[in-house]
Amino acid sequence: MRSIALKNNQTSVKMDLNMMVKLILTGLLLFSVSLQADTKNEVERLKNAVVKIHASSAAPDYFTPWRLMNSGQSSGSGAVISGNRILTNAHVVANARYLQAQKNGDPRKYLARILFVSHDSDLAILTVDEPGFFDQLKPLPIGALPDPLQEVSVYGYPFGGSSLSITKGILSRVEHQFYAHGGSYLLAGQIDAAINPGNSGGPVIANRKIVGVVMQANSGGRAENLGYFVPPSVIKHVMKDAEDSINDGFPELGFRTQSLESPAVKAAYGLKPHQSGALVTKVFSDSPASDVLQANDIITRINGFEIAVDRSIEFRKNMRTNFKYAIDQFHLGENVEMTLARGGKTLEVSVIAGKQDRSYSLVQNERFDQLPSYFIYGGIVFVPLNMNLIKRWGREWQNKAPVSFLHARNRWSSEAQQQLVVALNILPADVNLGFHDWKNWIIDTVNGQPIKNFKEFYNTIKNTSQKHVVLKDSFGYQLVVDHKKALATEKEILARYQIPASHSPDLEPAGNLHSKQD
User: Fold this and answer.
1) What angle is formed at CA 47 by the lines to CA 43 and CA 49, rounded to 5 degrees?
2) What does the alpha-carbon distance between residue 24 and residue 49 come to, in Å, rounded to a whole number?
3) What confidence score (pLDDT) does residue 513 get?
4) Mapping DSSP to helix (H, G, I), strand (E, B) and coil, where does residue 315 land?
């Protein structure tokens, strides 16, 4: 009897164990199914927050600055964020004449409009006014910068198809880079996910948050599957800047530096071997730093960040980038605290973050969403030299643009000389006989007077009382125009070449922008 009872008990225990195992397996299966369903739903919510942006754009033609180039169609991507807004790239909407947004899985395109653009950071904020567009679209929050080697997902609408694409990659590097669109030097993240045309403006996502905005792919031909994105620190700076709808941009303090990796340079300025910093080489006279910094100062700390001899700071544990990062965190009007070494003494100073009122380079960075400046006099087309004009030579502008234009990029502006003026080409007429083949000519003086900027150049010629206008370059070559004849033939030349006005509207005096042709 006892043995029978024992067998019954063993059988009961086995049945209980089998039941428990079945219950556990069933629970795990249900949990797995539930987790998969939640994951699928979460992915769908993320996908629905990514929209396709269609742009019809027409950029000004800087070779004929009174005209627009042929319009073109392009597309990009964007992500829905709080406040019924869409975050995308500035270059997706630059010079756009008509914008539309399209939701994931929806064949309809909705009229969109721009709320804010920061070309420097290559970011733009759009909205759609159509009621119901943002219904069922869960906005994505802005997250923190991922850790190196962390996996991220890139959402967007690249070329080759019309549906949403999702690719995965690894964050491989974070440091300052030159942004291809605006030419600014800001923090950027690098990932190894495939990025193609159409991905621009799409979100880089980790932990269901936006941790970057795709902006450009490697174009050097020496590396594959390298893409760059605008990181959270830049995004958040722009979001705060956009609160008043006025684009203040990133502060420019108005000084330039070089590294202190040379022991001889350190010794020359009284630094000990273990000390480090950035040597100030140039302080612009009308800049926020002009009353605080001096050439040959050594900046050792900015906002608590210690500057290394290569001008880098540790902005995150074991991650370094250019010290400009410390300045980029400020907004206009805030105090930037610095520690200097000057003549062997340590100084604590403060610079008020200011806005750059003019280009510190004689060749202004590329500008968007605005008409070019031009002035036609005696059949000569005059324009200011800027990167818009230089890049008009195409993707290989570095090899095709005039050498004098390219060299001018290395020259600083000053109070006395803020812009360079170019005689772009000649519209052949009797008044300019003998100069019909002159083009792309940088002018240095007008009747012996140095040129400060383009508007002053325009006013000098318009108001001259001289019989002849003599234009000279830095080598002494000159072009001479009979002033009375130039004025008398102006309407005839404009009509012959079908040009609507002799000058761009920005050259008109304030309050006279709508005056008729002279």
Assistant:
1) 120
2) 37
3) 43
4) strand
Measured CA distances, 137 to 80, 103, 106, 132, 246 (Å): 7, 9, 12, 10, 27
Give the global pTM: 0.86
Tens-digit pLDDT profile for residues 227-262: 899 999 999 999 999 999 999 999 999 999 999 999
Letter for the amino acid at 12?
A: S
* Other beta carbons within 10 Å of 288: 22
Residues 6+ positions from 137 with CB-CB distance below 8 Å: 48, 49, 80, 103
Angle among Cα 409, 254, 216 to the nearest 5 degrees reads 55
Please give the helix or strand (H or E) that residue 29 lies within, else none.
helix 2-48
Please check whether residue 298 is in contact with residue 266, taking contact to mean a CB–CB distance below 8 angstroms: no
Under 8 Å between Cβ of 228 and 188:
yes
> C-alpha angle with apex 470: 464 to 474, nearest 5 degrees?
125
Q: SS3 breakdown of the chain: % helix, strand, coil, rounded to 5?
A: 25, 35, 45
Question: How far, in Å, CA of 441 to CA of 456, rounded?
Answer: 18
Active site residues: 91, 122, 200
Q: Rounded to whole angstroms, how far apart are CA atoms 25 and 308?
A: 58
Q: Can you list the alpha helix ranges (DSSP code H) found in 53-194?
A: 90-93
Average predicted confidence (pLDDT) for the chain = 89
Is residue 445 a contact partner of residue 409, using CB atoms and an 8 Å limit? Answer: no
Q: Which two tokens stand for residue 166?
A: 């999702």
In eight-state DSSP terms, residue 140 is P
The letter for the amino acid at 112 is A
Residue 300 near residue 339, CB atoms below 8 Å = yes
